[in-house]
């Protein structure tokens, strides 16, 4: 999977930065064993397809999250230290950057700042979901801060980066409930086969290619998930599943925004406040890549509070109910298909833990 775009030419600003910025800290395995109580089960924060993550504390008292990669032994062709060094130079306040790494023996570990409010997925569907900490204001803040992070990767980072795996488990939350997007650009470090097996999780664009437009599609799904508290794909019966935008779009035709919003958010006028997030989410999740906005347009739409811009957005033909003859044609062009039985149940279960 190619994650850096071709514009990362030699002689770019990134190279200049590489000369002036210090390399990330190289941690010893002994240091990380001491910090995590030898990767004790009690320190485990979670587990994904490619890694387990442990809470730890360094001797200076700072809290860290240590990501221990699985299956590294198959990837001896990749220069781990170099890849991590390139990624760790990509810095933005809403990206979770790497503090350091360790590559001793068979172990490959990445060290990050610890995010006390864990991941967005744990609040929407996992261990914090019953507490409903995410009110409307926090959800808006998460939408904007996560959009800014991905816009930075696409439009300003050197080299430019396609995230390739935008999803709620990769949006971590700091103490102020601002997003810190993680796992960007790690395509080379993760086993390809496993990534390919996970291609029907609802976030993957119909064109199935890692690209900026593909990230926009995934981000649209994430916005709909954030507002509704529903999963990207819902099981309708034993053999059929429905994508979230297919559920949302008919409610938008009817103007029923209140029904889309997560019922755990009990606030006045909440449908109106989150309406823009829903509309932007649907624009992003369109089937045709060229119909989707860019991430910088997404940031602009989410942040702009003018009534004119909102009216412009609402007037988009996507949100008008098609006449009966048009309906089938429109369904082919927009939204997410009904998805037949697939294999992501295992991953969903892991994310909730
Ligand atoms: N810096 C961090 N601070 C706090 N918790 C973290 C941090 N990094 C990861 N986690 C927790 O560890 C869990 C597992 O992370 P990991 O990146 O291994 O997998 P994932 O992103 O959930 O899934 P996948 O990698 O398969 O997409 C996350 O969902 C999150 O709850």
UniProtKB/TrEMBL annotation:
Chief site of localization: membrane
Any one GO cellular component localisation term in the record: membrane
Domain of life per record: Eukaryota
Bilayer disposition of the protein: Single-pass type I membrane protein
Keywords, in A-Z order: ATP-binding, Kinase, Nucleotide-binding, Serine/threonine-protein kinase, Transferase
Catalyses which reaction(s): L-seryl-[protein] + ATP = O-phospho-L-seryl-[protein] + ADP + H(+); L-threonyl-[protein] + ATP = O-phospho-L-threonyl-[protein] + ADP + H(+)
Molecular function (Gene Ontology), one example: ATP binding
Basic and acidic residues: compositionally biased ranges: 12-22, 323-333, 340-353
Name of the protein: non-specific serine/threonine protein kinase
Native source organism of the sequence: Raphanus sativus (Radish)
Gene: LOC108805223
């Amino acid at each position: 999977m190619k994650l850096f775009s071709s514009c990362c030419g030699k002689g770019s600003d990134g190279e200049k930065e590489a000369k002036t910025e210090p390399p990330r800290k190289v941690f010893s395995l002994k240091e990380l064993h001491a910090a995590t109580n030898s990767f004790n089960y009690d320190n485990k924060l979670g587990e994904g397809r490619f890694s387990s993550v442990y809470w730890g504390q360094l001797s200076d008292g700072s809290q860290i999250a240590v990501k221990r990669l699985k299956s590294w032994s198959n990837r001896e062709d990749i220069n781990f230290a170099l890849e991590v060094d390139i990624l760790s130079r990509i810095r933005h306040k809403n990206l979770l950057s790497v503090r350091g790494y360790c590559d001793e023996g068979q172990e490959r570990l990445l060290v990050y700042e610890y995010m006390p409010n864990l991941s967005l997925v744990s609040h929407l569907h996992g261990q914090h979901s019953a507490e409903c900490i995410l009110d409307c204001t926090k959800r808006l803040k998460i939408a904007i801060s996560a959009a800014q992070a991905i816009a930075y990767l696409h439009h300003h980072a050197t080299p430019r980066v396609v995230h390739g795996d935008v999803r709620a488990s990769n949006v971590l939350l700091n103490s102020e409930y601002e997003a810190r997007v993680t796992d960007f650009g790690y395509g080379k470090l993760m086993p390809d086969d496993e990534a390919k097996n996970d291609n029907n999780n609802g976030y993957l664009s119909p064109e199935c290619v890692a690209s900026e437009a593909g990230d926009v599609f995934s981000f649209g799904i994430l916005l709909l998930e954030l507002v509704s508290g529903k999963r990207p794909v819902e099981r309708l019966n034993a053999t059929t599943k429905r994508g979230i935008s297919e559920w949302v779009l008919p409610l938008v035709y009817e103007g029923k925004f209140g029904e889309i919003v997560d019922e755990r958010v009990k606030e006045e006028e909440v449908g109106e406040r989150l309406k823009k997030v829903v509309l932007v989410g649907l624009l992003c999740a369109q089937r045709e890549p060229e119909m989707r906005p860019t991430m910088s347009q997404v940031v602009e739409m989410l942040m702009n509070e003018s009534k004119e811009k909102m009216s412009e957005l609402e007037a988009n033909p996507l949100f008008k109910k098609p006449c009966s003859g048009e309906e089938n044609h429109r369904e082919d062009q927009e939204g997410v298909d009904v998805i037949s039985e697939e294999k992501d149940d295992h991953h969903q279960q892991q994310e909730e833990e």
